[in-house]
Amino acid sequence: MQVSVETTSGLERQMTITVPAERIDQDVDKQVMQQARTRRMDGFRPGKVPPKVIKRMYGDAIRYDVLNRVVQESFYKAVQQEELKPAGGPSIDLKNDKEGEDLQFVATFEVYPQIELADFSSAEITKQSAEIKDEDVDQMIETLRKQQANWVEVERAAEDGDRLRIDFEGFIDGEAFDGGKAEGMDLVLGSNSMIPGFEAGLIGATAGADVELNVTFPEDYHAENLKGKPAVFKVKVQSVSGSELPELNTEFFAKFGIEATEADAFRAEVRKNMERELKHALKTKLKEQVFNKLVELNGIDVPAALIDEEIDNLRRQAVQQFGGPNSQIDPNTLPKEMFEAQAKRRVTVGLLVQEVVKASEVKVDDERVQQTIAEMAETYQEPQQVIEWYNGNEQILNQIKSMVLEDQVVDQLVASAKVSETEVSYEEAIKPAQQAAETADAEAGE
Prior knowledge:
GO terms for molecular function: peptidyl-prolyl cis-trans isomerase activity; protein folding chaperone; ribosome binding. There is one protein chain. By secondary structure, this protein is of the alpha+beta class. The protein folds into 3 domains: 2-110, Trigger factor ribosome-binding domain (Alpha-Beta Plaits, 2-Layer Sandwich); 120-132 and 261-445, Trigger factor, domain 2; 150-244, Roll (Chitinase A, domain 3), CATH 3.10.50.40. Helices cover 47% and strands 21% of the residues. Helix 6 crosses helix 7. The longest helix is centred in the middle third of the chain and has 35 residues, at 263-297. It is elongated and about 95 Å long. 17% of the residues are buried.
């Protein structure tokens, strides 16, 4: 077998492989002889079918199967010979597959990048900490009450937090536009579910009122034809409802799976859940910050095949998240562009983390794995059963081990970086990193 490799661009390789005709002929003859011994045909005793009959009737199909197998075997043997690490399967182009002549084909594929990790000691990391105060718990309990609130129609002007049932139609330059009309829609004022100015313009409205709103679509609005456009919405208010908050009693506590008879016991459970949420939020933000720095310091080429594979994973996750496990939505109908940036970052981080593990010889901490499982099981009514289930499910257990190994990599990188600590409020701490950054930018601009 002859092999030549050419670098076409970046991570792409073209490997030309030539296999002697004798190898193909020998494999074809073996298959013909095997079928002559095993195939049953009318007019011949079992095992006595002449090979020339088999070759005449099934020779093309046998040769086709042999060629496919030889191409696959030759490719992986050549990859090992040339010490290449393919990222995804190859594209095969048969150059010559004529009988009696050498088989020649070209395999085009991408390889994993060669990574030399940059020194992480130059990275500047800000580690947040936060304390849960009594007023934070009070606010959380009020939020839970609002989630379970009953809506009662009121005969007064609408206030922030009220729910209005409305009909509306939007116009641009006097013309109605697609998607700008609705009837019988419930809208909570202050929910920010409509464009800026819409909800604020309905404060003070009463049931039966006709309100005309002059608003402007944001420049980053998702519909291209509406970006930055001034619009007029004609709104009919059908009803105004105020929220009636539930009492703090056993019935209310049970809605959150908390078996408590006293408000103090419920409050203690709420605080415990908040502490768990806070720990997770701070850990997630630190990890994201560390990985952002890792990517920033190590500019690497990423195989398109791995990005495409991750896009497919994200598509499936999106379908399951919004359509449920039995959704009939074809994930491939979701636009590739929706997931491309996220997929590329995930693959980049994955490759860099693997390299850190390899370079530092990090081994998964089994004790930490069990601690993580115990923390995850705390949220269930029968924690011990959950712990046993995790440990008995190899696939899930491996996922947790990978997560713990990733956490160990983060700890190692943080230990080598320039770390400053800052204390923030609970509300700020649990905000997603991107949202927190946007809030900080907005405050800086004021």
